[in-house]
Amino acid sequence: MTKVMNFFVIASMLAVSGSSMPGIPTPPLVEAPVVQYEPTWKCEDCTPEEQYVLSQLQEHTKIFDRNALATIMGNIKQESKFISNICEGGARVSYTECRSGGYGLIQWTSIGRYKGLGNFCAKYVCDPSSLEGQTRWMINEPIFQRVLPVFEGHDQSISYYMRPAYTWLGWGIKGNREVYAWNYAKKLVLS
Q1: Which residues contact 34 (CB under 8 A, 6 or more apart)?
Q2: How many CA atoms lie within 13 A of 4 on its CB side?
């Protein structure tokens, strides 16, 4: 019993002192990198298209406010229902086949904004008819970039964020975009 007790006493002293047993080298300390976990807003009840846009907005901007994200999502739902290849009026066509009205996620309507999508995708090798290409353009489009600092603020209401959304989209018919935004705000979960 005394030998066993002496072993534990010696082992405890060695552990406290940082020494190793004679003849046995002490293994080097290995620093483990600390990975900071950043929670993001998720929407489990959303379509894959909605989830994709939500994740890209958070990955490529500094928008962390639930109401700001919900406002953007509600406006996209009003404009296109997250259908990227939709021409104003509902026709599902490619980018080059939409001849009048708006096109895509946010219904790019003016010739400059419409051509901006095509030029962006030509330069950065993406499909202007695809969700991925349009999401990239939407985030990088100069008009969105001008209002982005407002969306990157925090603790504002959906009504507050509807003002920069109007500057960004310039809708003719408000429709249900604010109702959609409130519905998204209820569904978004930080995890």
Answers
A1: none
A2: 1
The first and second tokens of residue 185, run together, are 């705000």
CB 95 within 8 A of CB 67: no
Amino acid in the structure at residue 165: A
> CA–CA separation, 66 vs 182, rounded Å?
10
Q: Which two tokens stand for residue 42?
A: 């998720």
Residue 36 lies in a domain: no
- Cβ atoms 65, 155 nearer than 8 A: yes
41 beta partners: 190
Whether 64 maps to a domain, the answer reads yes
Tokens 């950043």 belong to 38
Residue 159 within a domain: yes
Quote the CA–CA distance of 25 and 115 in Å, as a whole number: 68
- Which tokens sit at 78? 């009003």
Per the domain annotation, does 51 fall within a domain?
yes
Residue 170: give its domain's CATH number.
1.10.530.10
Note the pLDDT tens digit of each residue in 129-161: 999 999 999 999 999 999 999 999 999 999 999
Axis-axis angle for helices 111-124, 131-140 (nearest 10)? 110
- 44-55 pLDDT tens trace: 999 999 999 999
